[in-house]
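Page 47, continued from p. 46.
Same chain as before, 91 aa.
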Amino acid sequence: MVEYELTVEELRYAYIEYEHICDVEDIRLQIYEYADEGDRYKGAPVEWLEEHIDEIAQLKRRYIDKYNTDWQTAIVDALADYIADNYIDEE
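Result:
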């Protein structure tokens, strides 16, 4: 078996990447758990949210890191703020 040793920078990058994957999954779970029967979450279509899920996850992480927001509040706030700032209802 071959073992690899990561540099400090590689390890840091891997941690950040894994953290982002977890943030995306948290956002996705929130969307699908609370989406209404019309496939909308707080007025925004689930499909639109999926297209922007990376940006929403980054916003969630910013709330946690910069403002020391707990992760559950950060999920809800990131979704609400991203929708309010970026979604334009075209119907």
